């Protein structure tokens, strides 16, 4: 029977209008948007400092669990209670038309509620600059997930004539897709059933992607539940004698429908088809990848062997799915020039031995399975092979950019020769013993060789020289490095006034330029001392050759911290972010930093151009204007002692006094000079940014934020080598977006606090100066007293000085204590102001979305009351009857 659009529209209008005929409909919408606002703008929203709906998305399935049954509980239960369902079925309309009309009505009601909830988006617009593609896919995910659960809620209403019972049954039915993953954990099938949960299928929508598998999942759930609605509706036509057989028949049909829809959804997951709506198109192949795949030569085919665990913990399910999806796209675009082999690897199997032959070993991952924390061996590696070369990616962690790793590996093995990176031997020890992670990373793309500065450095043997902590070189070694730099050969320098990375087992810093060169003496004091550092650790000759100035014992700080969850970090942990509007934190014109979003440097130094130099100085990384400089004595505590090196170790002070100078400070710069004594170098005044931690975190992705430290280093190497093919692809990542208005207000609080602290310090210093003047005045009075003989005068002077010194010491301690108390009070006040600001924003964010729904409800109520009054006959008006009685 053909569906009649007119009939469906009539039923839709009847049910839709009835929902808004009373106060209850508007009340449900108000509760929905208020709860949504409370979930979206909770405390973690401000901690995350990102203009997104991530917090709401996390709780949205639970919110739907209560809102959907509230919308659908009266769809059939009220009809049955009033007896209008029989009248409805006697109308010239089929069951399918009635079902679709009612479903369209509740779907429209839910859509209206979503429209009102878009006030949350207005709040995000006010606070920051959200990704509109991400917002669109998130709301589409909200809509399609709610549409699926609405059909389940209608089924619950169809089973009873009591709205309360319908609400409870609706929660139970909607709870199946919401909590099926938790049910799987109880049954020992968590990894299997979790993929069918609503939250898991919604995940991609919340990331800015519309996956075919997610769409088919929700559509399949909707179709299945509507079919069950139809079966229950047509039950009244069954003959009593045949009812058991009919029930069995339709049950088999329902199972068959579910099986078909499940297979279709599984196929969609295998196909990995998706629409990428993010601003940066992060989930689509880049033009760089497509270009490299198109240029592959048929004479030199490439093979990718992917060694994958068949089952991975849920934390790595998305990573495995993305890896397999990208490999399929590479296989398709590469054609006959690229082949992909998938190898399922179980521990201690022949496939595991093959993987380990290529250097791919299992990584132990902590996961929760069946309610228990356990370690699982996971294989997620690949080897890319050609007749020229071989590149191994041992493990694709959650944070690793998979497309970049695959594309770079393909390009590397497709090239006949590699460029070479020379690593200078210094006290940093990048290739002494176990190599630093930066060396391992460079080996994926370059040949890496260790270079000694004890003799002349031959620039012909490598394409770029990496020098970490050259301030530790001896006199002769420094001369050789300076001679290399003057040839104009590419040079990448990392030096650091306070290198935490070089500390020994957490006992303090022992490799700072200001400290003596590390010795090799034994525990009993034997052995010969090592040579001293060139230029006393100041690297003066190298800096002069490069046309730079660098204070070897001073660090910069920056009050900017876009991550409130790490508010305890000192300001010497410098966050360089794209959102710093008061400075060019990243050089937007240079290819190295153009695509970077956020980077962190730990106790970095400052590099400047020499006043009399003709070197072209180009800043790459800079602090904001809420920054300043700390001298060595202001931030170092010399009380530490390192038992492993028998040297005095230094530790950072807990609360150094910082004075913001409102200037920007350059952390990294590129310097070039042509002609005689040409220069082509990049100087970075921080070593900690290339520590192993950032390379490991880039792979594992355990932090909530993503730093571009590794990207910056690799971009700098590529730029100096002259190979820029991967710069754009390597820099692909979500734009760094923050709550700009909140940060601006916090910045005002922090500036006021810093000014108050500065005044408190000045007042303390002024008080101390007055005490010193009193002492000087007393000494002068004694000296000018002619009535005293020299012996008595000397004795009185000594007594006066001792007494005044005691008072001075006591006064200094008292003034220092008062100053510290005042500073603590200022900081506590600032923290209260920040919390109050967040609370006010949260209050408005929760309350404002409810106003449009309340206003619309009030308008409809007033309009309806007015219409009812206009339709009443004059003779039946109460005020009219009163007037007539007064006349009589």
Automatic annotation (TrEMBL):
Region (Disordered): 511-536
UniProt organism field: Novipirellula caenicola
Primary residence: membrane
Domain ABC-type uncharacterised transport system: 418-716
Subcellular localization(s) per the UniProt record: Cell membrane
Topological type in the membrane: Multi-pass membrane protein
Protein's recorded name: ABC-2 family transporter protein
Residue stretches spanning the membrane: 16-39, 59-77, 98-127, 139-159, 166-189, 209-230, 250-270, 841-862
Coiled coil: 739-840
Keywords for the protein's UniProt record, in alphabetical order: Cell membrane, Coiled coil, Membrane, Transmembrane, Transmembrane helix
Top-level taxon of origin: Bacteria
InterPro entries: ABC-2_transporter_component, ABC2_memb-like, ABC_transp_unknown, DUF7088
One Pfam family cited in the UniProt record for this chain: ABC_transp_aux
DUF7088 domain residues: 280-384
């Amino acid at each position: 029977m053909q569906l009649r659009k007119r009939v469906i529209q009539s039923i839709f209008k009847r049910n839709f209008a009835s929902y808004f005929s009373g106060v209850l409909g508007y009340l449900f919408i108000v509760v929905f948007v208020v709860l949504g606002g409370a979930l979206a703008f909770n405390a973690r929203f401000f901690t995350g400092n990102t203009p997104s709906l991530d917090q709401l998305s996390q709780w949205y399935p639970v919110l739907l669990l209560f809102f959907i049954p509230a919308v659908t509980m009266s769809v059939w239960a009220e009809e049955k209670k009033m007896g209008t369902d029989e009248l409805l079925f006697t109308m010239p309309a089929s069951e399918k038309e009635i079902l679709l009309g009612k479903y369209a009505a509740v779907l429209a009601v839910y859509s209206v509620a979503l429209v009102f909830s878009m006030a949350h988006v207005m709040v995000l617009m006010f606070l920051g600059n959200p990704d509109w593609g991400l917002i669109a896919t998130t709301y589409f995910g909200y809509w399609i997930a709610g549409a699926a659960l609405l059909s389940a809620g209608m089924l619950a209403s169809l089973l009873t004539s009591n709205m309360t019972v319908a609400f409870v049954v609706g929660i139970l039915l909607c709870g199946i897709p919401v909590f099926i993953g938790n049910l799987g954990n109880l049954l020992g099938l968590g990894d299997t059933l979790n993929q069918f949960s609503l939250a898991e299928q919604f995940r991609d929508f919340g990331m800015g992607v519309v996956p075919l598998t997610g769409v088919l999942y929700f559509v399949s759930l909707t179709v299945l539940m509507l079919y069950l609605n139809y079966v229950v509706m047509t039950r009244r036509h069954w003959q009593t004698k045949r009812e058991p057989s009919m029930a069995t028949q339709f049950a088999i049909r329902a199972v068959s429908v579910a099986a078909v829809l499940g297979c279709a959804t599984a196929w969609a997951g295998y196909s990995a088809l998706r629409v990428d709506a993010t601003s940066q198109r992060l989930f689509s192949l880049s033009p760089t990848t497509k270009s490299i795949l198109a240029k592959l030569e048929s004479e030199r085919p490439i093979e990718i062997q992917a060694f994958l665990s068949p089952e991975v913990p849920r934390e790595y399910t998305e990573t495995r799915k993305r890896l397999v999806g990208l490999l399929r796209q590479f296989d398709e675009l590469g054609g006959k020039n690229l082949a992909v082999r998938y190898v399922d690897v179980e521990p201690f199997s022949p496939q595991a031995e093959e993987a380990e032959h290529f250097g791919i070993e299992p990584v132990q991952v902590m996961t929760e399975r069946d309610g228990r924390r356990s370690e699982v061996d996971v294989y997620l590696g690949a080897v890319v092979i050609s007749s020229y070369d071989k590149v191994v990616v041992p493990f694709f962690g959650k944070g690793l950019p998979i497309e970049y790793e695959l594309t770079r590996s393909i390009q590397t093995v497709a090239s006949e020769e590699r460029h070479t990176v020379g690593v200078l031997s210094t006290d940093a020890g990048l290739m002494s013993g176990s190599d630093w992670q930066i060396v391992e990373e460079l080996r994926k793309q370059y040949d890496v060789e260790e270079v000694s500065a004890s003799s002349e450095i031959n620039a012909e043997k490598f394409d770029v020289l990496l020098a970490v902590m050259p301030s530790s070189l001896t006199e002769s070694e420094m001369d050789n490095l300076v001679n290399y730099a003057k040839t104009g050969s590419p040079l990448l320098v990392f030096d650091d006034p306070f290198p935490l990375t070089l500390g020994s087992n957490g006992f303090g810093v022992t490799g700072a330029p200001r400290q003596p060169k590390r010795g090799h003496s034994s525990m009993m004091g034997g052995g010969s001392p090592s040579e001293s550092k060139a230029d006393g650790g100041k690297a003066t000759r190298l800096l002069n050759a490069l046309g730079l100035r660098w204070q070897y014992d001073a660090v910069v700080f920056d009050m900017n911290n876009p991550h409130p969850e790490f508010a305890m970090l000192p300001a010497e942990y410098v966050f360089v972010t794209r959102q710093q509007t008061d400075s060019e934190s990243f050089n937007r014109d240079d290819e190295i930093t153009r695509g970077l979003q956020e980077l962190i440097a730990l106790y970095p130094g400052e590099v400047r151009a020499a006043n009399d130099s003709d070197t072209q100085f180009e800043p790459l990384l800079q602090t904001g204007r809420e920054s300043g400089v700390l001298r060595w004595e202001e931030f170092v505590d010399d009380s530490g002692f390192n038992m492993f090196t028998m040297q005095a170790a230094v530790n950072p002070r807990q609360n150094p006094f910082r004075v913001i100078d409102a200037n920007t400070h350059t952390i990294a710069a590129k310097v070039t000079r042509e002609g005689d004594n040409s220069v082509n170098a990049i100087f970075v005044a921080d070593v900690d940014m290339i520590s192993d931690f950032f390379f490991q975190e880039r792979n594992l992705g355990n932090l909530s934020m993503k730093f571009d430290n590794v990207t910056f280093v690799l971009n700098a190497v590529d730029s100096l080598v002259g190979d820029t093919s991967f710069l754009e692809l390597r820099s692909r990542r979500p734009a760094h977006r923050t709550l700009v208005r909140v940060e601006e207000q916090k910045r005002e609080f922090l500036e006021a606090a810093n000014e108050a602290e500065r005044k408190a310090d000045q007042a303390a210093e002024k008080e101390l100066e007055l005490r010193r003047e009193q002492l000087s005045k007393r000494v002068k009075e004694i000296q000018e007293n002619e009535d005293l003989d020299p012996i008595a005068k000397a004795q009185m002077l000594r007594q006066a000085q001792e007494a005044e010194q005691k008072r001075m010491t006591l006064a200094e301690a008292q003034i220092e204590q008062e100053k510290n108390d005042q500073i603590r009070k200022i900081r506590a006040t600032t923290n209260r102001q920040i919390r109050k600001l967040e609370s006010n924003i949260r209050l408005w964010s929760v309350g404002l979305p409810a106003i449009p729904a309340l206003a619309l409800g009030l308008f409809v109520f007033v309009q309806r009351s007015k219409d009812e009054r206009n339709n009443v006959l004059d003779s039946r008006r109460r005020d009219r009857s009163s007037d007539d009685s007064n006349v009589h």
